[in-house]
Amino acid sequence: MFDATTIRKDFPLILERQVHGKRLVYLDSAATSQKPRAVIDAMARYYEEYNANVHRGVHALAEEATEAFEAARAAVARFVGADPRGCVFTKNATEALNLVAYSYARRRLGEGDILLTTQMEHHANLVPWQLVQPEAGFELRYVPVTPDGRLDRTAFDEIVGTGRVKLFAVTHMSNVVGTINPVAELAGAVRAASPEAVVVVDGAQSVPHLPTDVLALDADFLCFSGHKMLGPTGIGVLAARPELLEAMPPFLGGGEMISNVTLEGTTFNEVPYKFEAGTPPIAEAVGLHAAVDYLSTLGMDAVRRHELDLLGHAIGALEAVEGVTVHGPHQPSDRGAAVSFAIAGLHPHDIGTIMDREGVAVRAGHHCAKPLVRTLGSAATTRASFYIYNTVEEIPALVDAIEATKRFFTR
Ligand code: PMP
């Protein structure tokens, strides 16, 4: 049975932390989640009991560490329905997206091709494509966003209808307006018009919050970060179709990723190792394994149900506050638990600062999605984001902090 009050007991920081003399209400999980004791302990156990480098060792510790590292890969792959051979551990979602930009888009797209992404993206799913575009020569197009924070389907269909889209990169869930995009439907439309196109999904916000299956999503590449899904910082995942990875050149060169090196040249290791140059994030993989085990035990369907409940309460409560506007879709089923809002006449940075003094941690700014935030007619928003350890009882604290902020600035 999913019970957020019981779950909170597994999170030392959530349970114990006070700020400015008040019990912390942590509403910034879209930036990074807090970590359960199981993750912290699993990483400490690795360092205390079997810390060693992986893959090359012949001694017992190295074997234990390698086993744990590969078990983590298998668990993470299972969590998103992917083939472990296609699961590359990276530093974060950003690095996973850069890998696809440099090793796929830069090589496989060229003059006459369209790389299609959207105006809803995090900079991590915009800047890598912009970086490789001049060399590759493809046309970079963006699906516009409607005033209610959804992809403009007419514009999408028009661009896809050219038959020239060879890569479509889209977020599954917006980190600003919360919108959940119908990825499989969009992917199907792209493939119908351009059978050789590949679909890249930014799952940084969705994998932590929604049941995820790469096949059901119809994604060729799925990118996400460990730290937003109860795991540690320093590890991300690229879950790709192995045959695509096999045909791609390496992204970074060095140890681990080679099969043989001579001064004349190098042959590369098999996938996914070809894309894991240098010592990988071993402790972090162990921590991420504990995180996906924790989430799987709760059940991702139950996680989603809990967040729908929180969303229903939060959107209703926010809209009832005079002067507050909630951005993005208002129907909880169309969105995830990252809720951006505006308070008439107040700047998000001022809002965030005063709310912090009330013990409520929200994020203020452009959320690394400047083109999207501009469509909201502003340079910044205030964002409250929820996760498994948040309770419906915390929503009045959010509202009280907003009321306190309004009072502060109208004194
Ligand atoms: N995409 C989205 C939608 C995100 O919200 C984020 C993190 N804010 C990223 C990508 C990048 O994640 P990371 O910084 O962990 O690489």
Structure overview:
The structure is a single chain. The chain has 411 residues and is an alpha/beta fold. The chain folds into two domains: 4-31 and 300-410, Aspartate Aminotransferase, domain 1 (Alpha-Beta Complex); 41-296, Aspartate Aminotransferase, domain 2. The protein has 15 helices and 17 strands. The protein has helices spanning 4-8, 12-16, 37-49, 60-79, 93-108, 127-136, 153-160, 183-193, 214-217, 242-246, 282-298, 300-319, 348-357, 370-375, 395-410, and strands at residues 18-19, 22-23, 25-26, 87-90, 114-118, 139-143, 165-171, 198-202, 221-225, 236-240, 258-262, 265-268, 324-326, 338-343, 360-361, 363-365, 381-385. The protein has a seven-stranded mixed β-sheet, sandwiched between helices. Strands 13-14-17-16 form a four-stranded antiparallel β-sheet, covered by helices on one side. A two-stranded antiparallel sheet has the order 1-2. Helix 9 links the parallel strand 8 (198-202) and strand 9 (221-225). Helix 3 (37-49) packs antiparallel against helix 11 (282-298) and helix 5 packs parallel to helix 6. The longest helix has 20 residues, at 60-79. The chain is globular. The N and C termini lie far apart (46 Å). The model has no long low-confidence stretch (mean pLDDT 97). Bound molecules: 4'-deoxy-4'-aminopyridoxal-5'-phosphate.
